[in-house]
Amino acid sequence: YVSEQKRFYPKRELAASVLGFVGMDNQGLAGIEYTYQSKLKGITVRRVMERDARGRNIQSLEGLHNSRPRSYDLVLTLDEVIQFTTEYHLKKQVERFKADSGMAVVMNPHTGEIYAMANVPQFNPNHYGAFSSQVWKNNIIASSYEPGSIFKPIVAAAALDRGLARPQD
Question: Across 2-11, 24-33, 64-73, 98-107, which has the greatest mean pLDDT?
């Protein structure tokens, strides 16, 4: 019997293509887990210390300093409710139009904060091996598109905003 630790993703598919996942060796294999592997993992430091009769540390026998390794906090601006809602509606539209895939981003245009980044099809990072590696990709940042194709919704939104077009046009 060997005890092993395994990362568990309690929200399953939610933001899976953004967050990614780790393999059995806790190495990031996709998403944020892969991109920021070195910052998220930290480092293991081993010190052999000499102690006095009262158990107080006197000095390190390996010459390592007592300073702790720098740790990092990674803070995302994703909002769980907005992410869930975006994924839910994106899945519905992909099904409705029988599309192969879909992508959506919800961003604060004033700050650049990303509140949701959704990709369909989705995968469960707890069982990533059951899915094609193509599904693991965050296509919003990993795929390229013709500028004309992705800019059409912006032009349409501007026309609607200025009253130059109506939704039924």
Answer: 98-107
Q: Output the CA angle 160-150-121, nearest 5 degrees.
A: 110
pLDDT digits (tens, 9 = 90+) for 50-106: 777 887 777 655 555 445 556 678 899 999 999 999 999 999 999 999 999 999 999
Contact status, residue 37 vs residue 26, Cβ threshold 8 Å: no
- Tell me the catalytic residues: 149
- Provide the pairing of β-strand 57-60 with 49-51: antiparallel
Element (H, E) at 96: helix 80-96
Phi and psi at residue 69, to the nearest 5°: -65, 150
Tokens encoding 77: 């601006």
Hey, where are the domains in the chain?
16-162
Handedness of CA 4, 72, 30, 102 (dihedral sign): positive
The count of other CB atoms within 10 Å of the CB of residue 125 is 26
Spatial separation of the C-alpha atoms in residues 62 and 49, rounded to whole Å? 8
Gyration radius from the chain CA atoms:
23
* The pLDDT value given to residue 66: 45
Please give the pLDDT value at position 19.
92
Distance CA 67, CA 50 (A): 16
